[in-house]
Amino acid sequence: MLTTPDLLAELNDRSREVFRRVVEGYLETGEPVGSRTLSRTLNEKVSAATIRNTMQDLEKLGILDSPHISAGRIPTQLGLRLFVDSLMEVDPVAPTDRARIRETVGEGATDVEGLMDRVGAALSLITHGASLVLTPKREAPVRHIEFVSLSPDRALVVLVYADGHVENRLFSPPLGQTPSSMREAGNYLNAHASGRTLSELRDAITADIDNDRQQLDSLASDLVAAGLALWDQPDSSDARLIVRGRANLIGPEAADLDRVRTLFDDLERKRDIAEFLELTEQGQGVRIFIGSENKLFSLSGSSLVVSPYMNADHRIVGAVGVIGPTRLNYGRIVPIVDYTAQLVGRILSGQSTGQGR
């Protein structure tokens, strides 16, 4: 299959203009765009018959499709990718949109969960789509760790963070654990925990166990390793997925309702919500996934515009995005998502958001 640069090279000025007008018309109305409509709007005066021939050539390239024999054309998924990568004009974020985002999100927030709820509400409100927010993983230093035996094959690890948050996680401990080995494991971890976040503690303990297993007896060492394995599980993170604005995705046609139902079934079946974060880690900017390009939404045929946000250490800690049908107004939504992600990063880093970007 031709890549988007190859496809772009196949287009002359007229076919490129026809293709761009078809895509823009489809994204605006959701309807196929016909040759007569284009003949009235093209800068170059050409007949409807000439435009139809150009459309047929674009259809052979696989970037346009005809839903009905006598209807106009719509872009294919490949065509939308070509448009987004090469021909889309990105609008700056309108001052009114910036003001509404800033007003809804607020500034100087100390309640991170409340902040992320407001971010989701702002994106849904501004874009008239469904918003997606992946909240940061908890990065507060750990103050205390304790193992509690519940049964021979069930144990609880209690994590107390420096900010007062308490988290309990169930797991299956190695066989043969005793109250003594559990106390030793807890004492060992607490001796290393001071001032360290959970990820920092995990790295330090892993290195210590690998380098000097004599610090712990075998039972306690196995228990610590089991706890570390538990923390390494993606779905044991404190990340939370917030989705707002489902109703915005439902249009007048019954097919829209089926698509939205499939979309949210996909969301609810996915236990590893950190997949969204992984999608963004290949680059710092906005990423666009169209239809089946995003395996999470492949069945529903939806698009995802997503951007990561960073903490004060310039580490990616979460993501914000907009979900919608492939007929998204990409040129408007891309800069809105980018602006929102940067705003969230500045707020979380304790920086002044000012009045500009």
From TrEMBL:
The role this protein plays is: Negative regulator of class I heat shock genes (grpE-dnaK-dnaJ and groELS operons). Prevents heat-shock induction of these operons.
The identity of this protein, by name, is Heat-inducible transcription repressor HrcA
Which Pfam family is an annotated match for this chain, by its short name? HrcA
Q: Which PANTHER family match?
A: HEAT-INDUCIBLE TRANSCRIPTION REPRESSOR HRCA
Provide the alphabetized UniProt keywords: Repressor, Stress response, Transcription, Transcription regulation
Taxonomic source organism: Paracoccus pacificus
What residue stretches are annotated with the Heat-inducible transcription repressor HrcA C-terminal domain? 114-334
The similarity annotation says:
Belongs to the HrcA family.
Looking up NCBIfam families in the UniProt record yields: hrcA (TIGR00331)
Where does the source fall among the domains of life?
A: Bacteria
Q: Which InterPro entries match?
A: GAF-like_dom_sf (IPR029016), HrcA (IPR002571), HrcA_C (IPR021153), WH-like_DNA-bd_sf (IPR036388), WH_DNA-bd_sf (IPR036390), WHTH_transcript_rep_HrcA_IDD (IPR023120)
